[in-house]
Amino acid sequence: MASLLAPDSFSWQHGSLEQQKAAIASRLGVLAEQNSDSLIAATQQELQQLHLAQQAIDTHEPQDLAVELQASTNAGLAAAYTGFSLASNIVIAPQGTTTAAVATAIATWKDSSRVNIHGRSPRIHELPHRGGLTAGALQQAMASTTLTAVYLDSDRLLELTPVLFELATQRAPVVFHVPIAHQRTETTAERVADLAQVAAIRNAGVPVLLAQSMQEIHDLSLVALTLADACNLPLVVAYDGVTLGSSYQSINAATSSTLQGILQEVTVSLQEATRSPTLSPEEIASALATAFKVYQSASGRAYNLFEYFGASAPESVVVTAAPGSTNAVNIVKA
Phi, psi at residue 149, to the nearest 5°? Predict the structure, then answer.
């Protein structure tokens, strides 16, 4: 099976396996009318490979991996799983502990011939650890117009701010997974997640989703990847790379059939946004809200663009982002 599913042994086309099988079946009908026996045989073999890929997806690969993650996972594995399962390209800059864990996990899955929901193993690109070529290497790795998952640390995100502007303008389908580094506070010397590096790219035109738990990393990464693929949008998913990166929790990981269903439903629900040459911030927010609703229907877990906690008629409102929002809510409760 591994040889049939190796990315270099078969010319996979972007799109779902069902779409590919339908196209090949249509091609077989045309070849039959032309009495082209040799091409019919080659096309039938191509169709058989697609069937084998679907069997691998339905009966072994992603489901087994999802079950493994449900037992115990950390931040790196939760983010790596969704990217490996959905993206055609994966770009990794393995600098910190969490991104290094991502690189190790993805390399292991690829070496064991696991495949994604498209029936193929993603193309893997590893960026240099440091240096001025970071942005250029990223652009080269993302030359493809297919969905790309990027894994890099928060201090490297600032280096790529010009690239983020360009990706937003080009409507590139890419999701950055960013573990946030810790910094010492000036008052207590306590080390906390430093959101400044992520907040610094807020004007780059790229939506940022902040996850506060292992489950949220999995869920928001999944939503971001399906939205990026459906609407050709760049997004960032950020999370506490130290606290979540060093602990293990059980999560509800989506199986391949669930992933396929969510991707198809998001694509259908956002057809108008997909066709639009440009999207305003309001339209992007609306598309994200739609993706959240689709995910809630599939998983039972609800997410919103923002959440409010407090009095029904407040005199003052504090706007904060994860992980600071948890502390703010605790203060209000006290």
Answer: -110, 125
